[in-house]
Design a protein that fits this description.
With 261 residues, this protein is an alpha+beta fold. The chain is built from two helices and 17 strands.
């Protein structure tokens, strides 16, 4: 009798084990595999409101420029009384005027002021203007080097040389001024063969009367006398062969800083 009860108890244990194994099998079979149809898709994560700029080393903008949207005065300090230059909304060539931005800003007398570099007389001036007088900032990655000894013009982009050509500069009695300036505009409307197919106006001024039609400023332009280039042949402006000025126009941005040495 005892043996029968033990036998019955053992059979119950075996049956229980079989039932547990079957339940586990059912759970495993019911679990979705990797190839099973996916459930309802989750919404994508929200895009960040600000993504930091990731610029490789050596490729940061050389400068920033901004258009002058309201005529103003360049002052020696924020809200200061010292006047360094007056800046208008239009250049002497009739294009929108612009200044270079130093990216320094201060608040004074209830206004935000930014430090800029603007065309002055005889050289560029560095001072402060109200931020509302300027439009948005635009980055520039090019810079131009004018070498008066080697009679060359060289353009760099992100620190790498991308263009070089021979140049005609000011004659000894009307020299091209040395210093640091910037390109204020690109012009296609000078239809005289003397200026070539395209020209750039800069913030540089010639101490003598230049051959630029905008009142003593130094231009960079083509020529109808390529045989004179390179040389010291102009009244202060920088002349390039027409094919070279067309190439430069393709590569150089308005706002490009210019160094004449």
């Amino acid at each position: 009798m005892k043996s029968a009860r033990c036998s019955g108890f053992g059979a119950a244990l075996v049956m229980g084990g079989l039932l547990i194994a079957a339940a586990i099998a059912v759970v495993v079979i019911a679990a979705p595999s990797d190839s099973s149809p996916a459930g309802p898709a989750l919404p994508p994560p929200p895009r960040p409101a600000f993504t930091p700029e990731n610029v490789p080393l050596g490729e940061r903008p050389v400068a920033y420029w901004a258009p002058v949207v309201a005529a103003t005065t360049v002052r020696d300090r924020p809200a200061g009384s010292g006047t360094l230059a007056e800046v208008e909304t239009r250049t002497p060539e009739g294009t929108a005027n612009l200044v270079l931005i130093s990216r320094q800003a201060r608040r004074a007398a209830g206004r935000l002021w930014v430090r800029v570099r603007a065309a002055g007389s005889p050289d560029d001036v560095y001072g402060w203007v109200p931020r509302p007088s300027l439009g948005g900032y635009t980055p520039v990655r090019t810079r131009l080097l004018v070498d008066r000894v080697r009679l060359t013009v060289t353009l760099f982009r992100d620190g790498r040389r991308v263009f070089r050509t021979g140049a005609g500069i000011g004659a000894p009695q009307t020299p091209t001024p040395s210093g640091r300036f910037y390109v204020r505009n690109k012009l296609h409307r000078y239809d005289s063969p003397f200026y070539g197919p395209v020209a750039f106006g800069t913030s540089a001024r010639s101490a003598a009367a230049s051959d630029w039609p905008a009142g003593g400023f130094v231009g960079i332009h083509g020529t109808n006398h390529p045989e004179l280039i390179p040389g010291r042949v102009s009244a202060g402006c920088i002349r390039l062969e027409n094919r070279a000025i067309l190439r430069l126009a393709h590569l150089m941005d308005v706002g490009t800083p210019v160094r004449v040495r």
